[in-house]
Amino acid sequence: MPVIQTKKRPTNNRSLIRQCLNVCTMLISVLMIWKGLLGWTASSSPMIIDYFGVMDPAFHRGDVLFLDNNKPTIDIGDIVAFTVKDRSIPLIRRVVEIHRLQSDQSSLYLTKGDSNVVSDRGLYAKGQFWIERRDIIGVVRVVVPHASFATILMNDYPVLKAVAIAIIAIRAFRRRP
Questions:
Q1: What global pTM score does this model have?
Q2: Does residue 7 have a pLDDT over 60?
């Protein structure tokens, strides 16, 4: 019996264009959702990940936290995310003390991690003893537990990140009949 060879069909241009448009639509949708969150929460970073776990038992390492920066005043007990000079990763801490300035009625905040014994003054920039309102990215409003544990694993073990990228690349470029 003769062997019949079949040739693979050349890639259809319409199919390729449709695939590219679907990817572009997905990327634009994600960008629109992100920009919407930026505007709705008035925060430069409406969503952050708890990398360190110093807020146990309130939050655990790997939790995704959604922030809101629309609140004009911050009270003792609020959990805030803030930036410190010369640090790239924002810190998530509870406000434990508020100092009101008589001169302009602005507030300064002292923070502390729930599982820490002392306040965060040792983590602030050199010569800084309080956090100002402009340093605060937002107040934690919603917590999604353990939603970003994969991100933390990939940061802790870079080999996992390389394997994940390789698997995604192989699946993306594998031809389907």
A1: 0.74
A2: no
